[in-house]
Amino acid sequence: MVALAAAAAAIAGCGASAKPPAPAANQTVVNGAGQATYPVSVTNCGRTLRFDHAPTRVISGWPTNTDLLEALGLGTLVVGQYNTSNGTPAPAYAAAAGRVPVLSEGPPTKEQLLAARPDLIWADGSYLFDGQQLPTIADLAAQGTQVLILSGFCTDDATKAKVTDVDTDLATLGRIFGVEASAARLRADLDNRLAAVTKKVTGQPAVPVAMISTYNDSIYTYDGVYTDIAQRAGARNIYAGTLPAGQYYAELSKESIVKNNPATLVYLLSGGENEADARAFLARTLPTVRAVQSGRMIFLSQWDSTNLAGVQGVESLAAALRP
Q1: Same domain for 187 and 220?
Q2: Given phi > 0 = left and psi -120 to 50 = alpha, else beta, which region is 299?
Q3: 251 shares a domain with 179
Q4: What is the distance between the alpha carbons of residues 295 and 167, in angstroms, rounded to a whole number?
Q5: Beta pairing class for 40-44 and 47-51
Q6: Are residues 16 and 56 in the same domain?
């Protein structure tokens, strides 16, 4: 158990005073974010997480997680973030997110993670907590650090993820931090925004779209939350249900796209990719496809799929499909 020993040593080396003492059980605590009676327990991905006090040192493992924490007024508690190359903060939260230390632009090392002395890590999945890249979730819990997983990615299987998973995560965060009223208000706003899109597209025929992206000149398509975004925006993902079991993305052959000849392409831009380059790639690679010939190409951020950004993705796609 070398990884466990190293993790324990790293955390212990931070000193017993690194984290604030827990208040007594059943004590009402007023913190910088809100008020709650602790301890509280929440269920996340089939696990029960107990908090004797609100976390005060939070690490965000995905850019949209950072945005949501900021939206709830919890930004001052975020002491680190990783996977920052996988998206950019929403404009409203960019300045605040820019002040949060970046542990790593991709997955962090054990040393980077533990040096931040977190008492809560909000991660995009459990895949990094394997005892090698990072300590296991159980090992971290034993040392006083809880791991919360995005609810749509509990098993690292994104095929079941939905835009409305943010409702579950808002309720969970509200209980953990004692900001249930703020979480409820934000949830109501998101629900109203989605309802407005639903009203706009109801009764309209679903627009068939191919949702694609590229990597190293290979073309990929997506299912899971991207199919949900398409449906909510009044579209139909033509590749939904065609991917191998358990996969939310898969490589597409050029021949497959040419054969299906979609009239509308939704191109999911990855980090650092721009629309001009994507257009040039499509014109060069798929010149005979109807969407390319007619210019019916919609460009969205690939990362507008979780938390607040998922709702933004629905709104953006709906507006582009039916201006």
Answers
A1: no
A2: beta
A3: no
A4: 36
A5: antiparallel
A6: yes
**C-alpha to C-alpha distance for 97 and 68, rounded to whole angstroms:** 11
pLDDT in tens, 94-120: 999 999 999 999 999 999 999 999 999
Domain range for 30:
2-191
Give strand ranges (E) for the chain.
Answer: 27-30, 35-38, 40-44, 47-51, 58-60, 78-82, 102-104, 120-123, 146-149, 207-215, 218-222, 235-237, 249-252, 265-269, 297-301
For the segment 76-83, the average pLDDT, to the nearest whole number, is: 97
Number of residues that make up the chain: 323
Q: What single-letter DSSP state applies at residue 253?
A: -
- pLDDT of 212 strictly over 90: yes
Q: Is the pLDDT of residue 207 over 60?
A: yes
Hey, what amino acid is at 287?
P
Model pLDDT for residues 5-25, shown as the tens digit of each residue: 222 223 223 322 334 334 444
Please state the pTM of the whole predicted model: 0.86
